[in-house]
Design a protein that fits this description.
Layout lengths: L1 H12 L7 H4 L3 H8 L3 E6 L2 E14 L27 E6 L3 E8 L6 E10 L2 H21 L12 H5 L5 H7 L17 E4 L10 E3 L16 E3 L1
Antiparallel strand pairs: 1-2, 1-6, 2-5, 2-8, 3-4, 4-5, 7-8
Length: about 230
Amino acid sequence: MMEKLQDAMEKYVDSPSRLPREFFTRDGITVAKELLGKILVHETELGTIRGIITEVESYMGEEDKGSHTYGGRRTERTEPMYHIGGTSYVYLIYGMYSCMNIACMTDGIPQAVLLRSVVPADEISEKRMQELRLRPINVRQQKKGKEPYTLDKLPASIEKHLADGPGKMCIAMDITRADNDIDMIGSESFYVTEGMEVKAEQIKAGKRIGIDYAEEAADYLWRFYL
């Protein structure tokens, strides 16, 4: 799939058009589906990293039992979800892994899209993602007294699963809590651009992952992927 997506992306990478505010000020299901194939861009210490969005989940606000804002929970943590569409919402799970969302709709309506997976949009992005994924793994290697991995000798976990999960995606794109509550429409370092064309028949739907507590909402088919 990665090769196919990268081939389709070639004509967009050199002159991408950024997504406007109007793209995000719509309901979270519409935005989620249309984010598939778009490019998430993050300027990092290693340089620009571009990832083609391939999997997302919709969280539909105060009536969605799977959402952080269910029942009107408006806290310091969830505040970015209440901000205008195009605002980043980055939170920690297990106290150590970041998860990246983009708020939808307008101020006061806390819908958002969780970005679950990307693939590199170009070779340099792929190398930078690999380097970032290697860092925590090599820390563990060092603690065990083992040789560190290199870009020429990657562990299978990176070769097969570079950025296919919200935590791995954030590591690969160097997204942290420092990137929380950013207006991605005006940001020069964190934003989304146009990408490949995705047709409706290419989009698959399934249950959201990791929300078994959400009763009937756990069965909603609000996870969308290519």
